[in-house]
Amino acid sequence: MIFEVFAVISEMTLGIIEPYNCGFLEIIPEGDGSDYWLIAGVHINGEAYRPSPRLYRSEGSALTKAQKIYDWIVNHENQIQGWGCWCSDLNMTLWHQSKEYPSCPLY
């Protein structure tokens, strides 16, 4: 019985963490056996940015979009204030999770 459980767990895809520039990109599958992917986070200098949830048709398209998000954040870091912002260039909301989370105030 233990072997069967191990076999099932070993087939699950938990996600991909891809190094990118000075940070990393985090994507996860929609579910077991799914061809659709979500961007779980873009990490830069210990800060996490989480885009509004969207499904991408492949691992490659999710990574490409995550790279664009990373590049946008690096070039527009001063536009992200507080917990998040609307990014009209990428047509999505980006939520910011600072290094101090959860001890930072909610303003």
Q: How would you sum up this structure, described in words?
A:
The protein has helices at residues 2-11, 59-75; strands spanning 16-20, 23-29, 37-44, 47-51, 84-87, 92-97. With 107 residues, it is an alpha+beta fold. It has one domain (15-97). A hairpin with a 7-residue loop joins strand 2 and strand 3. The radius of gyration is 16 Å and the shape is globular. The protein starts with a helix and ends in a 10-residue tail after the last strand.
Integer tally of domains? 1
Shape: globular
Query: Strand fraction band?
Result: 25-35%
Mean pLDDT: 82
Strands, count: 6
Put simply, the count of helices is 2
Write a short abstract of this structure.
With 107 residues, this protein is of the alpha+beta class. The chain has a six-stranded antiparallel beta sheet with strand order 1-2-3-4-6-5, with helices on one face. It is globular, with a radius of gyration of 16 Å.
